[in-house]
Design brief:
By secondary structure, this protein is of the alpha/beta class. 24% of the residues lie in helices and 25% in strands. The longest helix is centred in the C-terminal third of the chain and has 14 residues. GO terms for molecular function: protein methyltransferase activity. Pfam families: TP_methylase.
Length: 407
């Protein structure tokens, strides 16, 4: 690697191809010994760009580029639009120091779509469905939600329209943009419940404003903690709505943080942790086979298919998992070794929250607090229910909530 300059340049290129590149991007291509990119992007380069052309391997991996790091070669990577927005530039930046790499972005297809529609990007949810389940979109489905979605392929718009209609947003009007910024740019519009295009161009983006059907109420869930209990499929092993909201407040999710949901039951804590921000991550640890199926269904239905499910019983199932920023123990605090394993795995400043309903589990938390500090809070919730011709308070079992921050 040459001292004092970046060996890697990531060049954003639009659908108009080489003609749309600026002077710096063209100079980088002419100076490069190797240019890596998708076959479509490499085909856009004129013959006078003499660099060796290396298409991305299948399956995709960046090691082909990183292999040039110790050589004296200048390397270019071609990427769609803005490489740092759902692009390979962001992937490479996690592996290459800033001083080794420079990025020359072009307008992204998301920026171009927002410009065509007159939408403010800061007020719009942006989602990539490339290599990701369509269910990831469900987190963004609620009244007046404005979404730009990068399609995986030409069939994505039809699948997306079907999902919207099934969720009660059939009145939503979709705009499908094909080949944005290029000579083949085209815009196709229609209602989700009357979508008429089975397959669009492979390179497309879908824009929509969520609108509920008049006859069918839409199931759009809030992003704040405390979803209704009937949002989940469960067998009764569910942290109930009000206690769940209090528990999430104590866990204090932040973007990018990882949660262990130990004894996850139906997965509600991990799911709402991930719904709080798109970058939040969670691992649900659950031994019961039927509840594992509940978690799989609930994570898809509530828009967080990336929730990782570990089938097993703590503490044995915790071995080898990525270190958490927070741990919730909803079941199993009395199992020998569970609290110790979770506390040991936590990073400094990480939070441990555990709920107890039985006398024995509460006693375990009291003893743990005596050794490690923290707070104990008794939560009692009553609900008004019919009693004859009147209403009376029905008290749920009190819950003891333990919280500690690891010093």
């Amino acid at each position: 690697m040459r001292s004092g300059r970046a060996w890697l340049t990531v060049v954003g290129i639009g659908d108009e191809g080489y003609a749309g590149l600026g002077r710096d991007a063209r100079r980088a291509l002419f100076d490069a010994a190797v240019v890596t990119g998708g076959a479509r992007h490499l085909a856009m380069l004129p013959a006078r760009v003499r660099a060796r052309r290396e298409p991305w391997p299948q399956p995709f991996a960046v090691e082909v580029v990183l292999g040039h790091r110790e050589s004296n070669l200048d390397v270019c990577v071609l990427a769609s639009g803005d490489p740092m927005l759902f692009g390979v530039g962001a992937t490479l930046a996690r592996r290459v120091a800033p001083g080794e790499m420079r990025v020359l972005p072009a307008p992204s297809s998301l920026s171009l779509a927002a410009a065509r529609l007159g939408w403010a990007m800061q007020d719009t949810a942006m989602v990539s469905l490339v290599g990701r389940p369509l269910d990831a979109l469900r987190r963004h489905l609620y009244a007046r939600s404005r979404v730009l979605a990068l399609s995986a392929d030409g069939r994505t718009p039809a699948a997306l329209a079907a999902l919207l209609a099934e969720a009660g947003f059939g009145a939503t009007r979709l705009c499908v943009f094909e080949h944005l910024g290029g000579p083949l740019e085209r815009r196709v519009e229609g209602r989700a419940d009357a979508w008429h295009v089975d397959e669009a161009a492979a390179l497309n983006l879908v824009a929509f404003d969520c609108e509920s059907d008049a006859q069918m109420p839409a199931q759009g869930w809030t992003l704040t903690p405390g979803l209704p209990d009937d949002a989940y499929r469960h067998d009764g092993q569910l942290t109930k709505r009000d206690v769940r909201a209090l528990t999430l407040a104590r866990l204090a999710p932040t973007p990018g943080a990882l949660l262990w949901d130990v004894g996850a039951g139906s997965g509600s804590i991990g799911i709402e942790w991930m719904r709080s921000h798109a970058a939040c991550r969670a691992i649900a640890i659950e031994a019961h086979a039927e509840r594992q199926r509940f978690i799989e269904r609930n994570r898809a239905a509530l828009g967080v298919p990336g929730l990782q499910l570990v089938a097993g019983r703590a503490p044995e199932a915790l071995a080898g998992l990525a270190a958490p920023d927070a741990v919730f123990i909803g079941g199993g605090v009395t199992v020998p070794g569970v609290l110790d394993a979770c506390w040991e795995a936590l990073a400094r400043g990480g939070r441990l929250v555990a709920n107890a309903v039985t006398v024995q589990s509460e006693a375990t938390l009291v003893a743990w607090r005596a050794r490690h500090g923290g707070t104990l809070t008794r939560v009692g919730i009553g609900e008004a229910q019919p009693l004859g011709g009147f209403d009376a308070w029905r008290q749920a079992l009190p819950v003891t909530l333990y919280e500690a921050v690891k010093p």
